[in-house]
Design a protein that fits this description.
Helix content: 10-25%
Number of domains: 3
Structural class: alpha+beta
CATH architecture of the largest domain: 2-Layer Sandwich
Strand content: 25-35%
Shape: elongated
CATH topology of the largest domain: Pseudouridine synthase
Number of strands: 18
Oligomer: single chain
Largest sheet: 10 strands, mixed
CATH superfamily of the largest domain: Pseudouridine synthase
Radius of gyration: 24 Å
């Protein structure tokens, strides 16, 4: 039955149970093989690495039948396209399956146009080395969520397909049915009318600028942000700014920044969504004026991250203190 060459492949043999009859081949394999994601298995099918009864099957949507004998040949991982780079990382937690980092400002998460090197992925490849075991068929870290380049704070990264699959499922669920927690702290201009609340407004690409996101009446994706007022800054009768705790029920690009700007509470330092409020900084007394004027990133920090370990099932929870620049900003506003 073995029709695959012996070049280091891992062979997985399965027999379809009666209750799985009729399922798509890729869906059946994803449920049966915990260590491989459905997208990875679909790629293996389309590349001719899966057979049923000795016949190669290259259609992921093919229905399986009870008693089918399926063989999957998993080729060894090949080097990732991005190269490892010795970029310092603040590693909060690490084991054989995942690691949690406290991301610094200025670090792009994934290589893309304009940022092919110097990214978190490049740093992780160098940090993890041979411990990466082939996510998607290559030795690369599994990014299951992202932080903007200039947003700081906690991120979890998968080191193998099994961890990637489990974490991705939790983040897709956004904590609705599991222990996933994501907490952010932001310093914004102004104070919300209520001490806590929710923004429910769909987000999509801005019709006027493809580089920005915007709230859209039609065509946007569901976006829900919960906020709690933690502190007011300035004159109690007319506070100028506030510290908010934010929790995400969805994970859209620039979600917090767009939602807060729409409330008239843009993040301090946000060059994309808060430019109209830069004149507020000029009206601050010294030294607050200087501190705010040189704060050239959005004042946003991912301070809380909790999730279920995708392999052990243990609930992990991490907290992060604000970085030095954000701590200075808070201290400065507290002195007003």
């Amino acid at each position: 039955m073995d029709q695959f060459p012996d070049d280091g492949e891992e062979i997985v043999d399965l027999v379809v149970e009666p209750d799985a009859a009729g399922r798509r081949l890729d869906a059946y394999l994803a449920a049966a093989i915990a260590d491989l994601s459905r997208s990875r298995l679909k790629s293996l099918i389309e590349a001719g690495h899966v057979s049923i009864g000795g016949a190669t099957i290259m259609e992921a949507k093919k229905a399986v039948n009870a008693g089918d004998v399926i063989r999957v040949a998993v080729p060894p991982a090949v080097p990732a396209e991005p190269e490892g780079e010795p970029i310092p990382l603040d590693v909060v937690y690490e084991d054989d399956d995942l690691l949690v980092i406290d991301k610094q400002a200025g670090l792009v998460v994934h290589p893309a146009a304009g940022n092919w090197s110097g990214t978190l992925v490049n740093a992780l490849i160098a940090h993890c080395g041979d411990s990466l075991s082939g996510i998607g068929g290559v030795r690369r870290p599994g990014i299951v969520h992202r932080l903007d380049k200039d947003t700081t704070g906690l991120m979890v990264v998968a080191k193998n397909d099994r961890a990637h699959k489990g974490l991705a499922k939790q983040f897709a669920d956004h904590g609705r049915t599991g222990p996933l927690e994501r907490g952010y702290r932001a310093i914004v201009w102004g104070v919300p009318a209520l001490p806590y609340g929710m923004v429910d407004a769909p987000i999509g690409r801005s019709p006027t600028s493809r580089l920005k996101m915007a709230i859209l009446k039609t065509g946007g994706k569901e976006a829900i942000t919960h906020y709690t007022l933690e502190q007011r800054f300035g004159d109690p009768s007319a506070p100028i700014a506030s510290l908010l705790d934010l929790r995400l029920e969805t994970g859209r690009t620039h979600q917090i920044r767009v939602h807060m700007a729409a409330m008239g509470l843009p993040l301090i330092g946000d060059q994309e969504y808060g430019k109209g409020f830069l004149t507020k900084a000029a009206r601050l007394p010294e030294p607050a004026r200087s501190v705010v004027s040189r704060f050239h990133r959005q004042a946003l920090h991912a301070w809380l991250l909790g999730f279920e370990h995708p392999v052990t099932g243990e609930t992990l929870r991490f907290e992060s203190e604000p970085p030095a620049d954000l701590a200075e900003l808070i201290e400065t506003f507290n002195a007003l």
